[in-house]
Design goal:
The complex is a heterodimer of chains A (107) and B (125).
Chain A (H helix, E strand, L loop, with lengths): L3 E4 L2 E4 L4 E8 L7 E6 L6 E5 L3 E2 L7 E6 L2 E7 L8 E6 L6 E2 L3 E5 L1
Parallel strand pairs in A: 2-11
Antiparallel strand pairs in A: 1-3, 3-8, 4-5, 4-9, 5-6, 7-8, 9-10, 9-11
Chain B lengths: L2 E5 L3 E2 L5 E8 L8 E9 L3 E8 L5 E3 L7 E6 L4 E6 L8 E11 L5 E7 L3 E5 L2
Parallel strand pairs in B: 2-11
Antiparallel strand pairs in B: 1-3, 3-8, 4-5, 4-9, 5-6, 7-8, 9-10, 9-11
Classes of the chains: A mainly beta (107), B mainly beta (125).
Chain lengths: 107, 125
Amino acid sequence: DIQLTQSPSFLSASVGDRVTITCRASRGISTYLAWYQLKPGKAPKLLIYAASTLQSGVPSRFTGRGSGTEFTLTISGLQPEDFATYYCQHLNSFPFAFGPGTTVDIK
Amino acid sequence: QVQLQESGPGLVKPSQTLSLTCSVSGASVISEDFYWAWIRQTPVKGLEWIGHIYHSGSTYYNPSLKSRISLSIDTSDNHFSLEVNSVTAADTGVYFCAKVAWYAGYPPYWYFDLWGRGTRVTVSS
């Protein structure tokens, strides 16, 4: 099975900052990667799929890059509503798996 | 506007069967464009894909859970369901349902484009 790791696990940042989260796969997954935003009590939100395609309605400050085994999610100009936990997910083969998450907190 | 809503018991006794339903509004579960998935978030494993189902009844299950789970789809009532047998404390968590879009590729490109808010399940006697 393909495993995902994320770094950092926790990130403290201020409104307006640019932050980057990295997701690494245990073997190559081409561009079969998605990013999600989770907030307590809310429906998880798809941000990026196919590694770099912005989901409809998601602000352009979210950018996904990468292929193979290394991927990044960058938020350019953090907004108050962006403080949340972010997860990557591979969809290359069954079983699909999620990374352990990165929490972005207010500095 | 498509919406998904999970429902089910908040408390289940060990060794019993957990049954959850996801009601879909604004889209049809018989659409050829979507699959329908279950995901859970547990303290031990974090986010975990459980499986997904197509309107035809074809299913994809997480091998780690396959022996204990069953997905079904009710096209007349526009909902889909999850059963987990022989539950233990390790099955405690928040269970989400999701709509799965896909497009052609080898393998296909999947993405979970809409989720419900989740329903919390506790396994305890």
